[in-house]
Design goal:
By secondary structure, the chain is an alpha+beta fold. The protein has helices at 51-63, 82-94, and strands at residues 11-17, 23-35, 38-42, 71-74, 78-79. It is 27% helix and 33% strand. The chain is globular and about 45 Å long.
């Protein structure tokens, strides 16, 4: 992650890449946590960015045998500011 450490419930801006590692788009997610070199995030749940509500919903979804809506990204592609993520995406277009 760049710029500052994110706290659970804040927006994390992600440079999303295709299977070849080419930057495609920048998307905002709710930051849940990070571990080692990874960030775990989720889309907002309705209007809520509360991590407890999101994780409770994901646990219920899992218990129902459905697929939870959680995403894992490399920290190097995650930013606290949208402008920083867009800058990295544009720089990768030049490569």
């Amino acid at each position: 992650m760049k710029n500052k450490e994110l706290t659970p419930g804040t927006t994390v801006w992600v440079v999303e890449r295709n299977e070849d590692g080419v930057a495609q788009t920048v998307t905002g997610y709710v930051f849940l946590t990070n571990l080692l070199e990874w960030v775990i995030a989720s889309p907002m749940l309705g209007e809520s960015s509360d991590p407890n509500i999101i994780l409770s919903n994901q646990a219920a979804t899992t218990a129902e045998g459905l697929t939870p809506d959680l995403y894992v990204f490399l920290k190097k592609d995650c930013f606290a500011k949208m402008d920083d993520a867009k800058k990295i995406r544009k720089e990768s277009e030049r490569e």
